[in-house]
Amino acid sequence: MTGTKDQFRQAATARRRALTGTPEKRELDAAIAAHAARTIAALGVEGPTVAAYSPLPSEPGGEALLKALGEVSARILLPLSLNDGTLRWAPLRPETRPDLSPDLRPGALGILEPTGPHFPSTVLSECDAIILPALGVDRRGNRLGKGAGYYDRALVESSISCPLIALLYDDEVHDALPHDAHDIPVTAVITPSQKFLELREPE
To answer: How far apart, in whole angstroms, are the C-alpha atoms of residue 127 and residue 54?
Structure first.
């Protein structure tokens, strides 16, 4: 498939919309969440800090993601979207896990966000892994987001040395995607069938 960023976004959004609310999606999300948790556990870090996100109903990971990550992470940071186009980050309080609902409220974009103290994106330098949303990723790690640039700006703000992992459905990994110079590539993807696919720049 070839096309512009907007064409890829429209195709991915349509596929996800058709999948939302189905038993198939729940099965796929359970597999993604389990793979993500095993990936974090395999880092070999005692008490890892992980930045993740609260999936929308159409996004990979679903309701299973944060619960699965909570079983293997000492600290989970979730983003808050600000009106100026930037992200801040707040931890889930340990006492709310595994029942996360008391600690999450809909934010400005309708995404569930933590209610506690929040920090600038420089806090990402403390992470052992960062899990990002995406509509697609190619074999070079180019990530297709929704176009607002929140995550690219957040990653630029911090010194990142940990894995950047995108969660996708299997048909959202592409040979090549259109990208811009300011786009920050991811280092790996997790899909229902791929427990951890490391991405490399071609030699």
So the answer is: 17
